[in-house]
What we know:
α5 packs antiparallel against α6 and α8 crosses α12. The chain is mostly helical. It is about 85% helix and about 0% strand. The protein has one domain. The model has no long low-confidence stretch (mean pLDDT about 85).
Amino acid sequence: MKRGYKANITSNLINQATHLVLGLFTSILIARVLGPERHGYVTYILLFFTLMTSYGHLGLNNAVMYFHKRKNVDAQHLFNVNITCLLLIFAGLTVLTVGGWKLGLFLVDYPLPMIAGGLVFVLAGFFYYNNNAWFIASERIRESNRYNLSVFLLKTASIFAFWMMGFLVAGTNFWIAVVTMILNALLLQIRLKRGLRLAWDAPLLKAEFRYGGILYLAAAFDHLHLRVDQLFIKGMLGLEHLGVYSMAVVISELMFLIPLSINSALTGRLYNIEGEDAGRTVLTRTLKLSFYVCMGLTLVGIPLALLIPYVYGIAFKGAILPSMILLLGAAFASVARVSAPYFFTSGRPLVHLRITFFCLITNTLLNWIMIPIWGINGAAISSAISYFIYGSYYITVLVKKEGFQLRDLFALSLDDIRMILPQ
């Protein structure tokens, strides 16, 4: 295993550990200042535009690495064609969003400046995730982490400064998120050192959408799988309950920073590694590291959840039990998040599509049944069950279809740790 991969893993873990600690700190400030209802207000609009950012590109950003590394498309041509198409997609989304808002179809409680800010967030997000894919493909992850961490530290300092001045309101929190995305996109664009010239290549785009469309649907199902509980809570219980539950989600999903950080390093390594056996070895060792780190965080996080009302305020006391339940499920979901790149890089994204669709349907049905009975606790139980299914499916596929041994996936040795981490 190359030293660069070890360094990328370490860089990601340091980066995400910093996000974990400071993210918890800022979430406390925001929750205590805004309260459940205002917290739910800003959570909902950021959720709306985050979904648009993640899936509005219709799969194009998902295809960058595969077509650059596996199809050997000229890098500059691929970049130009994709950015041109993304700009056209964004223009269409802008028309649909502003039109829907003026007609009162959605976001009617939000002013026009916030709608405009959300659209800027989307455009910056398109560029950021496209640029980041190029950094991952070339295994320049440590470099991208430096810029991402710098912006995150600036974001944290801004939240603290506004809190000290008494200006940390829902709108402030929203605009900080927008500016953060813009800075992330600009820094990566500058460091990518790839000029832009508008170009069009219909056959290439057709092929990209064919491959990326599968990943796009899988990513959409995966994201909705993680967010459908919040959508149900808003509709069934209201913004105040959403504000409380979203705090439990924030706490539990801090754990996902670990597998997500490993995911990018693993994807880059699998695209650049030679030999199927070497790729299988990298996967097993990385999966073990991710799983045991997440299990350790779960064991620490569950008793710490009792401190929520003392840290966030008594209004968030209802988030204690949902946090504990979601933490248990998130540990198993980490297995799926680390396993997925093995199938993406080998051109088999349908494996991920099937399980994400099944988990979305399962979580939707369970939420529909359990929320009316147990409220936000029912939502947490529903999500935890679907998370467990998510991870179990990947383990089953790796063992039954791919020929991995169960002990290879979970028996962690000192040699595994030495091979993964820098010496």
